[in-house]
Design brief:
Blueprint (H helix, E strand, L loop, with lengths): L4 E4 L5 E4 L6 E3 L26 H10 L3 E4 L23 E3 L4 E3 L5 H11 L2 E5 L7 H12 L5 H8 L10 E4 L14 H18 L4 E4 L12 H10 L5 E8 L6 H5 L2 H21 L7 E9 L14 E2 L10 H16 L4 E6 L9 E3 L5 E3 L3 H10 L3 E3 L2 E3 L2 E2 L7 E2 L1 E8 L4 E8 L6 E6 L6 E9 L19 E2 L3 E3 L2 E6 L3 E9 L2
Parallel strand pairs: 1-22, 3-4, 3-13, 4-7, 6-12, 7-8, 8-9, 9-10, 10-11, 11-13
Antiparallel strand pairs: 1-17, 2-16, 5-6, 14-15, 16-20, 18-19, 20-21, 21-27, 22-26, 23-24, 23-27, 25-26
Helix pairs in contact: 3-4, 3-5, 5-6, 6-8, 8-9, 9-10
The protein binds alpha-L-arabinofuranose.
Alpha-L-arabinofuranose binds next to loops.
Length: about 500
């Protein structure tokens, strides 16, 4: 076997505490995410409100903590008023983002009911594309003000006496993108975001607000956009957003498997830019990062919004994920953890059907895509603090990243329970990798389990007929004293759980 990789861990070397909100996801009015995804009255599993309980069960199993809603591109043309009040009176409206006829059967109040059932915190996005400050304040008042004003009383009349009490808000979506309804320059958006945030904080003093950053690290305005927006809005916002989607471009699987390097550089660059603005403003405040859209998305197979047929919520961008995609998703989760000191919110985009870990058939079953598994296991077991792992690894040379580390790894340690977890990927397409993990800094530890996601056929997928074709399986790790060893097959994701004796 080629040179092995080594990981050294010590409880004294810490990146930061894990904010549970990094295990967020995203429900957009896009394709079948809402209609026949989370909501399908008449489905055998539907509850009294029409929510699919089979999907709710999977959402809870996935371990999602926070769900962003209602978009995405959709929000930049959305009239929130269309989606509240008696259903029979709600208008049908053409959604220009996805060229869909939106029936407004599901709106804010229903989403909030669903979020309570799914046990997730809402992350609400406001429309700063076609609309502005006034509608945003009305919406905030509708959601959070107890009663005694027109918007709040409307909510009460609509059957929600208690305020929805939404703390986390996105100030628009991807406003840097020319595809966005109401796309703006950084200066235009920065001013609007700052003024809207200032007004929202007058209405509710306990909000956490996310300003739009770049739609990807490869946008022509990336860097300058963050600098200009934060220069305007630094004092008014808490987070700057990042979005990134990955796919094997031109069949380059080698570069795809190390896509986490792109996410890593993206995060570092946004941290540097935010801190530069903070330094220029002589501010003590730290702006954290909300990576509120990330996933594998085969965008090259997507014909573009302009070419979509106008239809009521039909299938759109229902990508099917294989083993390689799951390994990449696992590696992106590792990257988010590696940056736990600054990434405090993250959303796997999206949750059901549209580029999602959960797929459904209308009237039929719901099942877990391959990418469901690394997410669910990481969300369940990454607790406490992220450790700064010392990693020595062979390199894989790819076209996009000529010196990528073959091993991509991080570790979490919960000192209240002694649970120590190592997450690792072998990012080589063809070569297995030996791994040693030195735990001597912990004194004594036992190996609880080693779970691996790998398949001899990396194109294997889960579908309605074979929902468990790809599932995590026991790995081959062992431990001798305080040194654990394992062999990681090519293109594989791993979780090694240890119990530290204290
Ligand atoms: O998640 C799909 C789309 O990707 C979102 O609507 C948009 O924000 C991004 O471009």
């Amino acid at each position: 076997m080629a040179t092995p990789a080594h990981v050294v861990l010590d409880p004294a070397f810490v990146v930061g505490p894990i904010d549970p909100r990094i295990f967020g996801s995203f429900v957009e009015h896009l394709g079948r995410c809402v209609y026949t995804g989370i909501y399908e009255p008449g489905h055998p599993s539907a509850d009294a409100q029409g929510f699919r309980t089979d999907v709710l069960d999977l959402v809870r199993e996935l371990g999602v903590t926070t769900v962003r809603y209602p978009g995405g591109n959709f929000v930049s043309g959305y009239k929130w008023e269309d989606g509240v009040g008696p259903r029979a009176a709600r208008p049908r409206r053409l959604d220009l983002a996805w060229r869909t006829i939106e029936t407004n059967e599901i709106g804010t109040d229903e989403f909030m009911d669903w979020a309570r059932k799914a046990e997730v915190e809402p992350m609400m996005a406001i429309n700063l594309g076609t609309r502005g400050m006034e509608e945003a304040i009305d919406y905030l008042e509708y959601c959070n003000f107890p009663a005694g004003t027109e918007p709040a009383d409307t909510r009460v009349t609509n059957g929600h006496e208690a305020p929805h009490d939404i703390r986390l808000w996105c100030l628009g979506n991807e406003m840097d993108g020319p595809w966005q309804m109401g796309h703006k320059t950084a200066a235009e958006y920065g001013r609007l975001a700052a003024e809207t945030a200032r007004a929202m904080r007058r209405a509710d003093t306990d909000l956490q607000l996310v300003a739009c950053g770049s739609s990807s690290r490869h946008m022509p305005t990336f860097g300058a956009w963050e600098r200009e927006v934060l220069t305007e809005a630094y004092d008014q916002v808490d987070f700057i957003s990042l979005h990134a989607y990955y796919e094997p471009k031109d069949g380059d699987t080698e570069s795809f498997l190390v896509a986490a390097d792109d996410m890593h550089r993206f995060i570092d660059a946004v941290v540097a830019t935010a801190d530069h603005v903070g330094a220029s403003l002589k501010s003590e405040k730290v702006i954290n990062l909300s990576f509120d859209e990330w996933n594998v998305w085969f965008q090259s197979r997507f014909a573009g919004e302009q070419n979509l047929p106008v239809q009521p919520a039909g299938a759109q961008i229902e990508d099917i994920y294989d083993v390689h995609d799951a390994v990449v998703v696992g590696s992106l989760l590792i990257t988010l953890l590696q940056h736990a000191d600054r990434v405090k919110v993250a959303c796997l985009a999206q949750l059901v059907n549209a580029i999602a870990p959960i797929l459904t058939v209308p009237g039929g079953p719901a099942w877990r895509q391959t990418i469901f598994h690394p997410f669910a296991l990481t969300a369940r077991y990454a607790k406490g603090r992220v450790l700064r792992a010392g990693v020595v690894s062979p390199v894989v040379a790819t076209a996009a990243f000529p010196e990528a580390s073959q091993l991509w790894s991080t570790a979490t340690y919960d000192e209240t329970t002694g649970a120590l977890v190592v997450f690792a990927c072998n990012r080589s397409v063809g070569d297995e990798l030996g791994l040693t993990v030195d735990l001597s800094g912990f004194g004594s530890a036992t190996l609880v389990e080693h779970v691996a996601l790998h398949d001899d056929d990396p194109t294997a997928i889960n579908d309605a007929e074979h929902p468990d074709r790809v599932v995590p399986k026991p790995g081959n790790a062992g431990i001798d004293g305080t040194v654990a060893t394992a062999t990681l097959p090519a293109a594989s994701w791993h979780m090694l759980r240890f119990q530290v004796e204290r």
